[in-house]
Specification:
Distance between the termini: 36 Å
CATH topology: NADH Oxidase
Number of helices: 5
Strand content: 5-15%
CATH superfamily: NADH Oxidase
Number of domains: 1
Number of strands: 6
Helix content: 25-40%
Shape: globular
Largest sheet: 6 strands, antiparallel
Radius of gyration: 17 Å
CATH architecture: 3-Layer(aba) Sandwich
Length: 167
């Protein structure tokens, strides 16, 4: 790869979708990328729930205060797993989620990571049959972008400390 940053700067939060369906093979490719993530002690706590039914996508969007933009998404992906007793759960799920988002960008699709809190669990779980033992890590509306955000980095020199913290 001639420009190692190209994929990373291309990944942007996309909130406007065309409403087109997402091909299953594209979703499977992105899920394969997600499951290629590193995992502490190889715990791999992740599972993924993929929703493509528009009415369920809308109900999920309504249940999350920051996912309302996703009505026209072609899919909703919910990374989830059993959190109890999993020491590296958050790190593992974060790595898998970011891999998923990078793959979605590489496929020319768009998505946004909508984080989850304890109170949102009870609103989301019944909509997709997720038992209380499973933690929905995020809601990720995925779609064909209505428009493509400009690639960018958010690099800031002052946030990099070489050799020692420099307050």
């Amino acid at each position: 790869m001639s420009d190692p940053l190209a994929l990373f700067t291309q990944r942007r939060s996309v909130r406007d979708f065309t409403g087109e369906a997402i091909p299953r093979d594209s979703l499977e490719t992105a899920l394969r990328a997600a499951m290629a993530a590193p995992s502490g002690n190889n715990g791999k706590p992740w599972s993924f729930l993929v929703v493509t039914q528009p009415d369920t996508i809308k109900r999920l969007c309504d249940a999350h205060p920051y996912a309302k933009f996703g009505y026209e998404a072609g899919a909703m992906v919910i990374p989830f797993g059993e959190k109890e007793g999993k020491r590296w759960f958050d790190q593992d799920m974060g790595a898998a989620t970011e891999n998923f988002l990078l793959a979605i960008a590489a496929l020319g699709l768009g998505a946004t990571w909508c984080g989850m809190t304890e109170d949102l669990q009870e609103a989301i779980r019944p909509l997709v049959g997720l038992p209380g033992t499973q933690w929905a890590f995020a809601l990720i509306p995925v779609g064909v972008p209505e428009e493509r955000p400009t690639p960018r980095t958010q690099y800031e020199d002052e946030r990099v400390h070489w050799e020692r913290y420099r307050g």
